[in-house]
Amino acid sequence: MAESKKLHLTAFMRPVSLHTGAWRYPGAYADANFNLGHLKSFIQKLEAAKFDAFFMADHLAVLNMPVEALKRSHTVTSFEPFTLLSALSVVTERIGLAATASTTYDEPYHVARRFASLDHLSSGRAGWNIVTTGNPESSKNFGRDEHLEHSERYKRAREFYDVVTGLWDSFADDAFVRDPASGVYFDPDKLHVLNHKGDDLAVRGPLNMARPVQGWPVIIQAGQSDPGRQLAAETAEAVFCSPRDLASAKALYADIKGRAAAAGRSREHLKILPAAFIVVGDSAEDARAKRLKLDSLVHYDSAIASLSVALGSDATGFDPDAPLPVDQIPDTNASKTSLASVLKLAADEQLTVRQLAGRYGGYSGLAFVGTPQTIADEMAVWLAEEAADGFTVVFPFLPQGLDDVTLKLVPELQRRGLFREDYEGTTLREHLGLPRPENRFFPKS
Amino acid sequence: MAESKKLHLTAFMRPVSLHTGAWRYPGAYADANFNLGHLKSFIQKLEAAKFDAFFMADHLAVLNMPVEALKRSHTVTSFEPFTLLSALSVVTERIGLAATASTTYDEPYHVARRFASLDHLSSGRAGWNIVTTGNPESSKNFGRDEHLEHSERYKRAREFYDVVTGLWDSFADDAFVRDPASGVYFDPDKLHVLNHKGDDLAVRGPLNMARPVQGWPVIIQAGQSDPGRQLAAETAEAVFCSPRDLASAKALYADIKGRAAAAGRSREHLKILPAAFIVVGDSAEDARAKRLKLDSLVHYDSAIASLSVALGSDATGFDPDAPLPVDQIPDTNASKTSLASVLKLAADEQLTVRQLAGRYGGYSGLAFVGTPQTIADEMAVWLAEEAADGFTVVFPFLPQGLDDVTLKLVPELQRRGLFREDYEGTTLREHLGLPRPENRFFPKS
Ligand SMILES: Cc1cc2nc3c(=O)[nH]c(=O)nc-3n(C[C@H](O)[C@H](O)[C@H](O)COP(=O)(O)O)c2cc1C
Ligand SMILES: Cc1cc2nc3c(=O)[nH]c(=O)nc-3n(C[C@H](O)[C@H](O)[C@H](O)COP(=O)(O)O)c2cc1C
Does residue A82 contact residue A99 with C-beta atoms inside 8 Å? Predict the structure, then answer.
């Protein structure tokens, strides 16, 4: 019998959590943004649970919300990903280390170099989450008044990828002969000068790095627009996406894998890992209560502003502790999908305005909230029905919410044969079941 | 009695050494460029010897010499400084961690962020070696055909420094109140928006980092031209320079400290640390023999090319094993200072053409070659005569040349009271005797 398909799990990390109320949750490490000790303990727990990777998100600006909301959020400052992951590489041995790097506000030579260096430092555990940077405020920190236009961003991203991967291939894997007798350190026939001149980038090369241990660090992509999916299909080996439910996840899965196949790539070599907010409880009610408690920690001022955005109209006049007054909500010109999903959620979960606001101010994406058994059931369905190859796990609060996953959910998944009992390889590529790319300038034969 | 003045010592690191023949020296770790284990052992030895800092040089291009010389050199590829130093921060506790970062080919927002992150990770041990990038080949890796012109580079560097230090001051030291009760994570009155718009740079800010532990990481500068010295005088807290002898070092020392005083700064808060190549032997003869052996490991093809450059005329026709044929050497239009110093060296040390070539192909800057006693004597003179506040130590070969310094020279300096027996503080600023800068936007009052 063929071995059954298994899930991949990566941890989507903001040091205090992505949820803006999390720093106020009982037991939270509110100072984790600049506390290496806490981050060490998180990654070591994730490694003990055999996670594929620790993934560090990244943002290039502070001012992405009104100051009244901003001052209540722990999400805007934290360690920079490369420095943090390099430090964490030393206190771990197997878990993958994925950093986010922007193709819009960085240089391919720097990006190629830093990932190659992280891959060497970690003996082959680096991954690059390619983002084009969504926050338009970022442009102002890099000398531009306006954010680069969406299609321009993706066009540059595609070229940026070609340049970075080309730079990683500057030296053949066996270029460094280091023969003391002849005095030859490397074979110049195994050095390739890229000489890239494209629409957006001009980079001569070669990169001043030996080829990465993995050949190329694993390529990850998180965009969801049409050009985002196309970029993923052409380049990514893992996709962090955020479908809202099983049906839309299946459609997204089929779409991206279909595009990859159309681009001549193997469907197996592109893993779809939806972001999932996971709240584990001893009972369904316990899990739900934890989540409501967490959402209640988002200050009402920020929460109601987020709900207004989701509704497309002002919600500040509503009674916080009554149900959503559906008949007072106008139709919207903003996002009708968003409005519809607020209405559905309010009805499904019978939430008050305050609770709904906390949800939108906290985290409103795909969530699995339940016992280890019910969550494992759901994950098994997603895997079997080709909605996901695994998940990008978003922890509701830390450390407790992480411990709940590693100590309760993961053992349940392992019992069912849905998740590895131990690492089988040493590199991130091996964890994800991805081949090592050939050097495009120095093919093996 | 006032405590006597002490030396500061920083280690100038290329993983295999700066000397191009070092990878062939007996016992050398030829693969150290990408071997974290070796670098861990080096930095831990330097910390045990109480060095002020481990300093990682940086270069942004490979093609800076003809391929026939390039293929014999280990110096063009190695770990990138930020990733490496972040990893090393975890295996050390006290030693400073100085990274080189270019103001010509990077963005101030990125540079400010990475240093702030390294400073937080290391609890206040980061230092920034500001360089404008000397190697003109670098431009081609960053979309420019031509290297930015020298004075333009320094003009941009000065503005870059203002922006980076301004970004470090984005948050007051006590901005992060993290009060769960009121739900306020930081006080918005303690957040400053830089809004910099200058000749070369436009950066809004704020930086998405808490203020560094040291306020600002220590500012280091290594340029020697007139604008280089001026930049150092206005901004640097440590200067890595490369005078050739005691007299020129004294002149340089007086010049830079004088410029600093003229700019309204304290002479005490700018440490002059000349680069010194140190070869320790059991006897003067032993040290000299080690150096000759090392120089002989530079392949003659590269060595003679370097000698030709130093002479300003072709030396390839000379008998390698005879003395320099002084009467066959034409005057030069290149550097007359350089030609004169070759002639002086050939006479002083009575070197053959091959030996001279090895010197120029290997390392021809300031060197202390002798026993621990004679080297300590020399260093004491440099310190007493105000030629140096300490040294940027260049190891001839590793690990042996490093062990010779940490296990033989350092104890001799300690015995004489010329070097610390233990660290007195925990930050790089404290090791160097530098004050913590006030936040320019949030003065203490
Ligand atoms: C799981 C996940 C993680 C993401 N992480 C980041 C990030 O760290 N930095 C960032 O700028 N954008 C991040 N994004 C946003 C995407 O990169 C992208 O900008 C966004 O989905 C909009 O892209 P689109 O216009 O192609 O839909 C993330 C998205 C998802 C789903
Ligand atoms: C000890 C020392 C270390 C240096 N390290 C670097 C370095 O890591 N990267 C670099 O590009 N230049 C480095 N330089 C070169 C200087 O930054 C500078 O480019 C060079 O001295 C020429 O500058 P100038 O034109 O002002 O004289 C170093 C110089 C010295 C003396």
Answer: yes
Torsion of CA A347, A351, A353, A355, to 10 degrees: -140
Of the candidates B115, B212, B220, the residue with the CA atom closest to the CA atom of residue B432: B220
Give me the residues of B, 311-330, that contact A with CB < 8 A: none
Please report the ipTM that was assigned to this predicted complex.
Answer: 0.97
Distances, alpha carbon A78 to alpha carbons A299, A441, B173, B180, in Å: 21, 39, 15, 19
Instruction: Give the separation between CA A164 and CA A207, rounded to whole angstroms.
Output: 9
In the numeric block, the tokens 């690492």 are attached to A423
Q: What is the pLDDT of residue B66?
A: 80
Q: What's the rounded Cα separation, in Å, for the pair A207 and B84?
A: 17
Q: How far apart are CA A64 and CA A75, in angstroms?
A: 11
Banded model confidence at residue B3, pLDDT cuts 50, 70, 90: low
Cα–Cα distance for residue pair A314/A306, rounded to 1 Å: 10
Q: Please, what is the end-to-end C-alpha distance for chain B in angstroms? A: 35
pLDDT at site A3: 62
| Lowest-confidence region among B34-48, B132-146, B190-204 | B132-146
Enter the tokens of residue A441: 């300038």
What would the mean pLDDT of B207-214 be, rounded to a whole number?
A: 98
**Domains of chain B by start residue, with CATH:** 8-281+366-432 (3.20.20.30), 299-361 (no CATH)
Nearest CA to ligand 1 atom 19: A134
Residue B215 backbone zone (phi > 0: left; psi -120 to 50: alpha; other: beta): left
| Number of the ligand 1 atom closest to the C-alpha atom of A231 | 26
Phi and psi at residue A323, to the nearest 5°: -65, 165
Number of other residues whose CB lies within 10 A of the CB of residue A425: 12
pLDDT in tens, B279-326: 999 999 999 999 999 999 999 999 999 999 899 999 999 999 999 999
- The minimal CB distance from A121 to the residues B36, B60, B63 is found for B36
* Res. A308: pLDDT tops 50: yes
Position A2 pLDDT exceeds 60: no
Give the pLDDT band (50/70/90) at residue B65: confident
DSSP state for residue A157 in the 8-state scheme: H
Residue A1 reports pLDDT greater than 50:
no
Distance between CA atoms of A51 and A190, rounded to whole angstroms?
36
Q: What integer is the mean pLDDT of A337-341?
A: 89
DSSP state of A242: -
| Neighbouring-strand partners of residue A221 | A130, A239
Q: Are A208 and B61 in contact (CB under 8 A)?
A: yes
From A18, A56, A76, A100, mutation site for ligand 1 pocket: most ligand atoms within 8 A of C-beta: A100
Which residue is listed with tokens 């002490």?
Answer: B6
Distance, CA of B222 to CA of B366 (rounded, Å): 15
Q: Which helix (H) or strand (E) holds B233?
A: helix B226-235
pLDDT digits (tens, 9 = 90+) for A264-297: 999 999 999 999 999 999 999 999 999 999 999 9
Q: Shortest CA distance to A203 belongs to which of A162, A237, A239, A174?
A: A162
**Tens digit of each residue's pLDDT (9 = 90 or more) over A46-88:** 999 999 999 999 999 997 778 888 999 998 899 999 999 999 9
B-chain CB neighbours of A170 within 8 Å are 62
Q: At what angle do helices B150-168 and B226-235 cross, to 10 degrees?
A: 10
- Ranges of H-type helices in A236-269: 246-262
